[in-house]
Design a protein that fits this description.
Number of domains: 1
Number of strands: 12
Largest sheet: 8 strands, antiparallel
Helix content: under 10%
Shape: globular
Number of helices: 1
Strand content: 25-35%
Oligomer: single chain
Structural class: mainly beta
Amino acid sequence: MSFNPQLGPFYVFKGDPTTAAGADMVYLGKTRGDIKLNPDLGIMTGYADQTGRTPLADVVYDSGPKPIVQVPFVDEEKLKMIKYFENGEIVTNTTKEAIGFSSGIKKIPIADIDTLALIPVAQIAEGENGIDAPGAIWLPRSIAKTPGEFTYNLPDGDDILNPHTVEFTGLYYETDQDASSVNESLRYGFIGTPNADTALTWSLPAV
């Protein structure tokens, strides 16, 4: 039997992977700490008093997954953060700029719902720019529900960086940004390469 653990850090990208050479997939910067994936498969079971605390084998239901990815970023470059400030905007005036948290209450259109890709650093040479990394994590459509807490303090100790943990939620949609149908089993999220789906022509930029 094989033993295949996934070790090491990831490169994180967000954007439209259907653009040529992954031009719209923005590298979100360096991380510090644990990157966590919870597929949350949504398996429901049923019980009967007559059989006690054991779930019934003939009452098992798949209610659909709700994948969550948590990423502790230390990079605070505005052009990167705007990719997960979902209703935010960078306002510029010549050399001056500010990043707004939100522009008010509105529905976020599907055109602004990006793909999240996490590519293991050790597998970045798999395919072009890691597109075929077997340990990659993909959420074909995702939203950042919280950008995390930003901590500012007097630097002290050997490691003075304070990560802010962004939580990404996978969303269901039947097609990618190029209107190509995504395999039904991959729409919620997947581990591996998008090239497993022959309908997709996704790519990543060089780091």
